[in-house]
């Protein structure tokens, strides 16, 4: 028995800090899988669940499923990257979706990155070396 793969409707990439999420949107019942696991298992907690389902709830859509591959960064950065990727994938489908997601602020990339360590700062980015008093 051959299992037919669902047709990919849209693709998008979301980034946050050092996390990169690759999104494939297919027609389905609204399931989101992240790295082969259900999204509720990968991102536990009700706050995280409300964050990654926000683009679908805002547009009141349940006819699309998403397959997500995410790597790099930590849980918070990965979650934000997934949300941006989902919003970008939905925005590429219809112009009405794009305006609704834009007004909600879901299509804006958060460009804040970790500041690099500076030479001569004692291993940190903003710390100064202590000067001797005498």
What count of domains describes the coordinates?
1
* Name of the CATH architecture: 2-Layer Sandwich
CATH topology: Ribosomal Protein S5, domain 2
Helix content: 25-40%
Which range does the strand content fall in?
A: 15-25%
Order of helices and strands: EEEEHHHEHH
Question: Radius of gyration from the CA trace?
Answer: 19 Å
Question: Helix tally?
Answer: 5
Give a quick account of the main beta sheet: strands, pairing sense, barrel closure. Answer: 5 strands, mixed
In whole angstroms, how far apart are the ends? 82 Å
What structural class should be given to the helix and strand makeup? alpha+beta
Q: Give start-end ranges of low-pLDDT stretches.
A: none
The mean pLDDT is 91
Top-tier CATH class: Alpha Beta
Strands of the largest sheet, in order across it? 1-2-5-3-4
Coarse shape: elongated
Number of E-state strands: 5
How would you describe this protein?
The chain is α+β, with helices and mostly antiparallel strands. It has one domain: Ribosomal Protein S5, domain 2 (2-Layer Sandwich), CATH 3.30.230.10. The protein is built from 5 helices and 5 strands. The protein has helices at residues 39-42, 46-52, 54-59, 75-91, 95-103; strands at residues 8-16, 19-27, 32-34, 37-38, 64-71. It has a 5-stranded mixed beta sheet. The mean pLDDT is 91.
